[in-house]
Design brief:
This is ATP-dependent sacrificial sulfur transferase LarE. 43% of the residues lie in helices and 12% in strands. The protein has eleven helices and seven strands. Strands 3-2-1-4 form a four-stranded parallel sheet, with helices on both faces. Strands 5-6-7 form a three-stranded mixed sheet. The model has no long low-confidence stretch (mean pLDDT 92).
Length: 275
């Protein structure tokens, strides 16, 4: 590892993990939770278990990737079903949706944690502190820990250290849950989530591996985001793009001319978002 600061942060992360007799890592398969899960497995062995929450908001491709990563790195891994889609507060899709999602996660993990005497660890990093993350309040209320945050990791640190450790997730694009694609105020339903998932698979098949399909108008309108440098190419494929997205179940397809950026839905909450 070339950067001394990265070495220091990794050492701090290892020390923080070793301070826990047992850990349940809330593991989505994304770059942050993957690093926590991998280091926890290295430091605690079978006393660390990565747990993936499974519901309609988790894309099938992400579920498969999480399984494969855990197997490749010898990480003890289990899946639990979560019931957020049965919770009216979550389905209502207000600005606090993530709070109710995290609450459902902790309710599912609590019996495992109690049975094993483990703490629950999240992949929160310092960059998350400046974003709209109501789920962090649920985590704090349930006593979850954030080893990356405690060790001073930002997102770029996570990626560099993951690369140094040979983790395939080092360059993995951000992949928020499917519910984050639904406009605030529109109900989150399994039908809309499946529609978004199918549409994103279709857009990726057209040569746009990084994309978002945002659902508006009660799930009738798809707003497609691709990286800004790819917008012109996507416009040139407008017929194919329209056919692919409407084939997934949307009535209308729109291409966002600003290009992809995480957190764009936050503008609907009166927040700056990622303009």
């Amino acid at each position: 590892m070339s950067e001394t600061s990265d070495e220091v942060k990794l050492a701090a992360l290892r020390e923080r993990v070793r301070a826990e007799p047992r850990l349940l890592v809330a593991y989505s398969g994304g770059v942050d939770s993957a690093l926590v899960a991998a280091v926890a497995a290295q430091e605690l062995g079978e006393r660390a278990v990565a747990v993936t929450a499974v519901s309609a908001s988790l894309p099938r491709s992400e579920r498969a990737a999480a399984r494969a990563f855990a197997t490749a790195h010898g990480i003890a891994h289990v899946e639990v079903a979560t019931d957020e889609l049965d919770r009216p507060e979550y389905v209502a899709n207000g600005g606090d949706r993530c709070y109710h999602c995290k609450s459902a996660l902790f309710d599912a993990l609590a019996p495992l944690a109690a049975l094993s005497g483990a703490r629950i660890a999240l992949g929160t990093n310092t960059d998350d502190l400046g974003d709209h993350r109501p789920g962090q309040a649920a985590a704090a209320a349930r006593g979850a820990i954030a080893p990356l945050l405690d060790a001073g990791f930002g997102k770029s640190d996570v990626r560099r250290v993951s690369a140094a450790l040979g983790l395939a997730t080092a360059e993995k694009p951000a992949a928020a849950c499917l519910a984050s694609r639904v406009a605030y105020g529109d109900p989150v339903t399994p039908e809309v989530l499946h529609r978004v998932e199918r549409a994103e698979e279709a857009v990726r098949s057209l040569g746009f591996p990084v994309c978002r399909v945002r659902a508006h108008g009660g799930g009738a309108v798809a707003r497609v985001e691709v990286p800004a440098d790819d917008v012109s190419r996507a416009a040139g494929l407008r017929s194919e793009l329209d056919r692919a997205v409407r084939g997934a179940g949307f009535e209308f397809c729109a291409l966002d001319m600003q290009g992809f950026a995480s957190g764009r839905m936050n503008v609907l909450l009166g927040m700056p978002g990622a303009r």
